[in-house]
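QA checklist item 7 of 12: single-chain prediction sanity check.
[x] sequence parsed
[x] length recorded as 192
[x] structure emitted
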Amino acid sequence: MTSPVPTLHPFDQAIALELQPDGHWLGHTSPAYANMVGPYGGITAAQMLNAVLLHPQRLGDPLALTVNYAAGVADGPFVLQARPARTNRSTQHWVIELLQDGQSVATATAITAKRRQTWSSDEQTPPAGPPPSEVATFESAGLLAWLGCYEMKPIKGAMPTHWDGLGQDSLSQLWVRDKPARRLDFAALSAL
C-alpha cells in the first residue's frame, strides 16, 4: 500500500514558481485568490517575494518589500524577473518585475540581510485588543474568493456593508490567519 501524496496548501500552490532556462520564474494567478478584477494584491506581493526567496543568489532573510502595481494583473501566466541590484557584506537590494505579454504590470524592491547578533530594542507594542478566542469570525461566504483564504476576526473597522464611502473611521484592526491554518513565513506575511 502506498502512502497518500501530501497536498500543497492553497497558498503554497498560488505562490509556486517554475525556474525557466533564462533564470526567470514562471508563475500563474490562482482562482483561490481572485479579487474583483484580477488577483488579490497580497498574493501578487507574495509571488514577487517568492522569486527572491527561491533565488540561488539570495543573501539572508527579507527585511523590507515595496510593491508597485503598475497595471492590473490579468488571470493567467506571468513571468517574474528578480535580480540582486547590489550585494554588500550582509545586505542585498533586489529589483523584481512581474511581466505579462512582455509588459511590466508590477515592480518591487526588496532588501534581504544576514541576521547578526546585535543590540536591539522593541519600541512598538502590540495594539490593545481582545484575544482571538473572544472575537467573532467574519463570514466571507459568497464574497470575493480571496477572502475565503483567510480567517478574519475584526476588532475595529469591520468590512463595510455598503460601499458608499461614508465610513466612520479608516482604521482596521483584526486578527487574521491563513485558512486552512498554515505556518506564518515571509511569503505569507507579505500577503497579509
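[x] summary fact logged: The mean pLDDT is 91.
[ ] second reviewer sign-off
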